[in-house]
Amino acid sequence: MEDRIAPYKICVFGPGDAGCIIIREACRLPEFEIVGVFVFQEQKDGVDAGTLAGINPIGVRATRSWEEFLAIDCDVVVHAALDSPATPPLSTYIRLLDAGKNVLTTHPYSYLPARDKSFGDEIKAACQRGKATFHAGGLNPDFMTQRFTTLLTGLSNDVKRIKIEEYFDCADQKNAGLLKVIGLGGVPDETIDENSPAIWYQKHYNYQMIQHLGEEFGVKISRIGGDKQVFAAPQDIIRPVMEIKKGETGRISYTSTGYLEDDTPFISITITYFFDTLMRPEHLEPDNTYIVTIEGRPSTRTVLSIRPSYLTETKEMENEPAAPAYFTFAVTILQAIPVVVAAPPGFKAPDIPVVHWKKDQRKNVGKRYAEH
Description:
By secondary structure, this protein is an alpha/beta fold. The protein has two domains: 6-136 and 315-372, Rossmann fold (3-Layer(aba) Sandwich), CATH 3.40.50; 140-305, Dihydrodipicolinate Reductase, domain 2 (2-Layer Sandwich), CATH 3.30.360. It has helices at residues 17-28, 49-53, 66-70, 90-98, 117-130, 139-152, 176-181, 197-217, 324-342; strands spanning 8-13, 32-38, 76-79, 103-105, 133-136, 157-169, 223-232, 237-239, 242-244, 249-259, 265-274, 288-297, 300-305, 346-348. Strands 2-1-3-4-5-14 form a six-stranded parallel sheet, sandwiched between helices. The protein has a six-stranded mixed sheet with strand order 7-10-11-6-12-13, with helices on one face. A two-stranded antiparallel sheet has the order 8-9. α1 crosses α9, α4 packs parallel to α5 and α6 (139-152) runs parallel beside α8 (197-217). It is globular.
């Protein structure tokens, strides 16, 4: 593949918190150029993309018009709009792909066997009609669980158990409604309904990753179960985004576990949301974001800490208001763009390392999940 001189032209579909981080970082790097933005709110229509992202204007006006948006010449559309039971993104993906737009989504559609067969069939058919590529990437799913954890198993044989833990301090967030959806500020002994948004997101994101890892390792996952733990605040916690009173939920953990045929737990993913340092788990250092524990021969534990700098004491990244751990999400998206653009039309699966632990190293040598 020859080196490229021209910057990659990016359109952002849905400049919310995540989309705006992508805009800011793409504008900072010479290899990328923001050329279009699709918005949903009338008050954002016609506003400069830079203004929406909190930086200087860049001369690109946002639009609510599909006709205008599809007419923009770009290398890739980064889809960062909301994905929920009420707003499924499939029809949007199909419309973009049919128009010949490469689609890089931030949502968990990287392992099609975890979805209804019709979903994958429609995506792949649209890719062929539009001669375009579809790829789902980001920090997690994609980087942490499917790529990084798989790589770490390369240090062990006889893997018996994998635990992936993610921690997120929500005190500096701006969307109180979202924090309430995930359970913060609620009554600890209230059971979150099985159909609640928080449980839906747990299944929507974590279950597909567990199924995917099972395939890569040659391990049959017989079932996946979900659980949660809640911890009450010992005192009132007041931050700009919201107030959590003493006795209300100040920390909540959602765990998804994939079980083997003998009902032994094999892979678990736990995501813990806590509100301020008072509710941070005792074993956690301030910058710890991910902990991956692999029980095998030998066993390993990898702690991933993320902060603005390890050379200085700066508390924020330069010209970037987002927390470093949240910012890494945009990094993974931008780094995937050149590969997506270079890929042939069709569904592009995650770039899983081909050398890692497997239940039987004689099987699927040098292979990884792909769609044809």
